[in-house]
Design goal:
271 residues, alpha/beta, Rossmann fold, 2 domains, 6-stranded mixed beta sheet, 3-stranded antiparallel beta sheet, 36% helix, globular, binds adenosine-5'-triphosphate, binds magnesium ion
């Protein structure tokens, strides 16, 4: 489905390899997080997955990336249009003079989707992200959080099989972050592959199937969030999980909760 094997990346300007021997395989319905400290290579891996490396960044790359048969290393981002939706860590750099509605329509028009379907898709994603009120606003007048939501809506408007989000929670308030988690859970159950690059794990950790922990361009641990919490201690482990991790280590609770609801359940049983 989505396979990465032996991936190495180096930017032309830097001597050192930024990604070293990255390999993983994802199937339909997988929701995974790549977590790791600033500078570990998350955005670089995202850029490679969507073909920006090597096609837009001067760089050297070797290894295999296969996304439902597409080969972004050879064919570049064009080969992924409609297949992969991408939300950048830096949506400001994609701002245009268009209104939100025009911005959302643009990639659909490029793919020659008919006008009625375009209207339907736009209505659907605006509703999903709860941003109907932004429809006629120019993107240049949006707040950082609003822009983030528009950028997620834009990635979803093409109904891609794979959704890649680079630090999607960074600019969202708590309510919007929870709404995004609900949306991602729904997308997961509709068999999409969802890849999130993030070090703020608060809301997302309890719905992830797997976390890949990155350090200095390598995957140093992977597995279900409950199994690899110890590797997350130095990253951005949610405070709730950190507290219960201590109790779990001491054998005082039978299971490690990852969300408030799970914590309440664990405490009930422990009593
Ligand atoms: N265009 C570029 N040219 C040269 N080096 C780069 C470029 N972009 C990133 N790097 C370097 O690659 C390394 C990994 O950066 P990357 O942006 O992938 O990290 P990250 O894990 O996404 O960090 P953050 O959490 O801060 O977003 C860093 O050392 C960075 O300086
Ligand atoms: Mg980054």
């Amino acid at each position: 489905m989505l396979k990465v094997s032996g991936l190495n990346v180096r930017y032309k300007r830097s001597k050192k390899w930024i990604l070293n021997d990255i390999s993983f395989e994802l199937n339909e319905g997988d929701l995974v997080i790549f977590a790791g400290p600033s500078g570990c290579g998350k955005t670089t891996l995202a850029r490679a997955l969507i073909g920006l490396i090597p096609h837009y960044y001067e760089s050297e790359i070797d290894g295999i990336i296969d996304i439902f048969g597409a080969n972004p290393i050879e064919e570049g981002p064009i080969s992924l249009a409609g297949l992969v939706g991408f939300v950048s860590q830096d949506p400001e750099s994609y701002i245009t003079a268009l209104t939100v509605e025009e911005e959302l329509a643009f990639p659909l028009e490029n793919l020659k989707v008919n006008t009625i379907t375009i209207k339907e898709r736009i209505n659907k994603v605006l509703e999903l992200l709860k941003i109907q009120d932004l429809r006629r606003k120019p993107t240049s007048e949006l707040s950082a959080g609003q822009l983030q939501k528009v950028s997620i809506a834009s990635a979803l408007s093409l109904d891609p099989k794979v959704l890649i989000l680079d630090e999607p929670f960074a600019r969202l308030d708590r309510t919007s972050a929870r709404n995004l988690c609900n949306i991602l859970e729904k997308l997961k159950s509709s068999k999409k592959i969802i890849i999130i690059f993030e070090h703020r794990l608060d809301d997302i950790i309890s719905i992830a199937d797997r976390i890949y922990v990155m350090e200095k361009g390598q995957i140093i641990a992977e597995g279900h969030p409950k199994k690899i919490v110890k590797y997350l201690i130095d990253i951005d482990i949610p405070e709730l999980v950190e507290v219960f991790w201590e109790l779990y280590q001491e054998g005082k609770i039978p299971e490690l909760p990852l969300s408030v609801n799970e914590a309440i359940e664990v405490l009930r049983v422990a009593k």
